[in-house]
């Protein structure tokens, strides 16, 4: 399989900057070498998506959607790259960057798969919901408004990015690892009908049972699945290099097992890994874990 590595060094969407260096950190952690060792062919763009450093960009006039214009511009370009990758029957592996990049990734996937008549599902592995809108967001950081926009809620500039309308049916969105939700986004997530497996669900039912439910969720309703993996889904004691750490997260083995099991259903055709912040990391450990998580999804086996 041809794996298309797309580097997206965008960090306008969050409060703590430094995730723009995440793609470089993951590259230096050996992502290409690891993927090729599994037997895949890695392709990259000769010209990376250009993102102007945050300190040189106007924050904009809307305090409830900071850096709206540059985020829309960059994610629109990303959407086109992702769409072209799917049309070439490649596996887009997008390296972020903060989680606002999901706006571009999912827009590109929706555009490509809609023409093929395929139903898109999203597995969102994250400590957070990212389901606020400009009306509910307590911060105005767009990385907290990105998944709601993909599902058709919030600012029109975000909802209609690349193409008009929602990019994924919220009933085809499944969360794993959630443990930090704002009240406004919690209400909207319930109204929208997304499926959520919190850390408490993992503790209550066991990780194996949750994974079985996740696999059944996608096998019964989707033709293709995208995985959006935020490194803050892991406990910060093992993954310190991320911008919004929340105690009590998944452990490393659970993340690897989840990726192995998702690989087994044969529906996952794209992935993004976000919120690796090397400024906060220790010896690039979080980036190394990101590489191994991607490898397990792409078929790496222990034996």
UniProtKB/TrEMBL annotation:
Q: One GO biological process from the UniProt record?
A: urea cycle
Which Enzyme Commission numbers does its entry carry?
3.5.3.1
Keyword Translocase in annotation:
no
| Enzyme kind, highest EC tier | hydrolase
Cofactor(s) the record lists: Mn(2+)
Which sites bind Mn(2+) 2? 126, 232
Q: Which GO terms describe its cellular component?
A: cytoplasm
Name the Gene3D superfamilies for this protein. Answer: Ureohydrolase domain
Instruction: Give the cofactor note.
Output: Binds 2 manganese ions per subunit.
The family annotation for this protein states: Belongs to the arginase family.
Q: What is this protein called?
A: Arginase
Q: Supply the source organism for this entry.
A: Treponema rectale
């Amino acid at each position: 399989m041809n794996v298309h590595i797309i580097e997206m060094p965008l960090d306008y969407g969050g409060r703590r900057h430094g995730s723009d260096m995440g793609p470089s950190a993951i590259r230096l952690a050996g992502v290409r070498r690891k993927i090729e060792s599994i037997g895949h062919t890695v392709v990259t763009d000769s010209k990376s998506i250009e993102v102007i450093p945050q300190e040189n960009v106007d924050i904009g006039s809307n305090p409830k959607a900071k850096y709206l214009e540059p985020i829309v511009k960059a994610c629109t370009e990303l959407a086109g790259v992702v769409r072209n990758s799917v049309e070439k029957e490649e596996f887009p592996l997008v390296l972020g960057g903060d989680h606002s990049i999901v706006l571009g990734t999912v827009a590109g996937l929706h555009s490509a798969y809609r023409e093929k008549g395929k139903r898109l599902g999203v597995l969102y592995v994250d400590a957070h919901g990212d389901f606020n809108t400009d009306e509910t967001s307590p911060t105005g950081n767009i990385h907290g408004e990105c998944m709601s926009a993909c599902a058709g809620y919030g600012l029109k500039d975000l909802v209609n990015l690349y193409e008009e309308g929602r990019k994924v049916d919220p009933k085809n969105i499944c969360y794993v690892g959630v443990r930090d939700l704002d009240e406004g986004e919690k209400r909207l997530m319930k109204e929208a009908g997304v499926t959520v497996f919190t850390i408490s669900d993992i503790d209550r039912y066991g990780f194996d049972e949750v994974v079985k439910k996740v696999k059944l969720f996608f096998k019964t309703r989707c033709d293709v699945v995208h995985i959006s993996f935020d490194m803050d889904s892991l406990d910060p004691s093992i993954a310190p290099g991320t911008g919004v750490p929340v105690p009590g997260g998944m452990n490393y083995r659970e993340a690897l097992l989840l990726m192995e099991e998702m690989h087994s259903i044969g529906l996952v055709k794209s992935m993004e890994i976000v919120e690796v912040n090397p400024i906060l990391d220790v010896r690039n450990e979080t980036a190394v874990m990101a590489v191994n998580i991607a490898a397990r999804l792409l078929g790496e086996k222990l034996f």
